[in-house]
Amino acid sequence: MKYQDYVKxxxxxxxxxxxxxxxxxxxxxxxxxxxxxxxxxxxxxxxxNIARIKTVLNxxxxxx
Length: 64
Hints:
By secondary structure, the protein is mainly alpha-helical. The protein has a single domain (3-63), classed as Helix Hairpins, CATH 1.10.287. The chain has helices at 3-8, 11-33, 40-63. Helix 2 (11-33) packs antiparallel against helix 3 (40-63). The longest helix has 24 residues, at 40-63.
């Protein structure tokens, strides 16, 4: 998702999305560790989306 899509979401939606992405990152790491080779671009996409959500959450705290 893009940054603007995350800005439109509520705080609760962002938190649930963040939890989902963190679980996904864990699963990707476990797949890599067990010898399976998940698609490498998924690690980068996941990392960037987590950073976007955290940025939106932090910016929301400063504005209010």
